[in-house]
Amino acid sequence: MIEVFKTNVQKAAQSRLMIKMLKVHFPASHINFDLEDCDKVLRIESKEICAQRIIQLLNLNGHYCAILD
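The chain above was modelled as a monomer; its predicted structure follows.
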């Protein structure tokens, strides 16, 4: 399963911190950001994805996050 999110993460350092934090909660996932995309895309691939938890975790760390349609 793959889920794609729109974020406001701007810098590579921020994306690395968010990936590290998300890996704690979703250790078996493949996670990356595409900061070149206008939507600053967060892409997560995993057997099970809880989109609301991912959004909540980014929000708690001061970032906007929403499922990209």
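Strands lie at 2-7, 30-34, 41-45, 65-67.
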